[in-house]
Amino acid sequence: MVVGSGIRRRRRSSLGADGVVSKCREAVSPGAGSTPGRVKEIVCAAYLPDLAEELEHTFLKFVHPAGGLAVGLVPVGDGQVVWFVQFDTERYARPSGDAVLPFLEATLQDFPEVVRRVVAGTAGPTPHVWDTVDMEPVPQIVRGNVALAGDASHVFLPFTSQGANSALVDAQQLAEYILGSTNPAGVTAALARYQQERQPVKHRYLSAGRALARGFVEPVADNAFAIPLVL
Ligand SMILES: Cc1cc2nc3c(=O)[nH]c(=O)nc-3n(C[C@H](O)[C@H](O)[C@H](O)COP(=O)(O)OP(=O)(O)OC[C@H]3O[C@@H](n4cnc5c(N)ncnc54)[C@H](O)[C@@H]3O)c2cc1C
Question: CATH fold of 14-34+135-216, please?
Answer without folding.
Answer: FAD/NAD(P)-binding domain (3.50.50)
